[in-house]
Amino acid sequence: MKAIKQIIVLRTDLKVRRGKMHVQAAHASLMAYLRACGSRDSMMVTYEWLQKYNQTKICVGVNSEEELLAIHTKALQAGIPCALVTDAGKTEFDTPTNTGCGIGPADADEIDKITKELKLL
To answer: How many domains does the chain have?
Structure first.
């Protein structure tokens, strides 16, 4: 394993305050981290990410819910710890809305197979 990172994927088509999207990114990061902690196979990776890789996180964007769900599905199929964030719809959205997902911490090369084409935010 060369490096460990976490990717935060956020929808750019949602017209909401930046603060709202920052909160969604925080949810994505924490939820994916907790999923990684729940897996015996990922425990050492998670520890190394915390201690050795300075909790490397990268935020990228997708243009639609369909793109978000496709990325999330690819991460699941690859066996990478990930979490889909669905906002409850009580403040800026009228209904529950998928806003982002967290992928990893995991091997950077494995995550890149799924996210390398996405644009940085």
So the answer is: 1
Per-residue pLDDT 10s for the chain (121 aa) are 579 999 999 999 998 899 999 999 999 999 999 999 887 777 788 888 888 878 999 999 999 999 999 999 999 999 999 999 999 988 888 899 999 999 999 999 999 999 999 999 9
In order, the DSSP letters of 8-36 are EEEESS----HHHHHHHHHHHHHHHHHHH
**Phi, psi of 66, deg, nearest 5:** -60, -45
Residues in Cβ contact with 97 at an 8 Å cutoff, skipping those fewer than 6 apart: 14, 65, 86, 87, 89
Tokens of 30: 């924490």
CATH code where residue 49 lies: 3.40.1490.10
121, two tokens:
């935010």
Domain of residue 28 covers 4-120
Are 40 and 92 in contact by the 8 Å Cβ rule? The answer is no
